[in-house]
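Morning run. Coffee first, then this:
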Amino acid sequence: MPEDEGLKAAGGSSFYADVVRVNYSPYTFLLEFGLVRPEGPIDELGSVRLSPHTAAIMARIMSSQVKKYETDHAPITLSEEVLRQSGLEVGPE
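And here it is:
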């Protein structure tokens, strides 16, 4: 089976991504998803545009689901390097 087979469903509506870039304007949030390849640049897979209200709801849902995941499985640890690369503050939570 080719390496990329199974990453995208028919029509490209479902895929695995290990990187996301988030941008916003006064009226919309843009989430651009990609896949890091060791041998080259990031493969751009797709994007989603959300209203600010939907983005805020999604942020709360994601936060809740990550907490539930960590309770059920194990805490997700993020290295300082990953936090810096993501533009997030490094330090105690």
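The first strand starts at residue 19 and ends at 24. Good start to the day.
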